[in-house]
């Protein structure tokens, strides 16, 4: 996903198990662009994105 999104300051992706991943963006602009650019898919699976507070 990082290669697709090209975040300016990078993104850290952690596998949380049970088909869940945590995407940590290091610049708010990148996170906003990804959230507004959805829907996203990976290997023909829909990514459901939610911004954590």
Question: Helices and strands in order, then pairings?
Answer:
Blueprint: H1 2-5, E1 11-17, E2 20-25, H2 28-36, E3 40-42, E4 45-47
Antiparallel strand pairs: 1-2, 3-4
Task: Please explain how this structure is put together.
The protein has 53 residues and is α+β, with helices and mostly antiparallel strands. It has one domain. The chain has helices at residues 2-5, 28-36; strands spanning 11-17, 20-25, 40-42, 45-47. The strands form two sheets. The chain has a two-stranded antiparallel sheet with strand order 1-2. Strands 3-4 form a two-stranded antiparallel ribbon. A hairpin with a 2-residue loop joins β1 and β2. This is DUF4283 domain-containing protein. Residues 2-52 form the DUF4283 domain. InterPro entries: DUF4283 (IPR025558). It comes from Gossypium arboreum (Tree cotton).
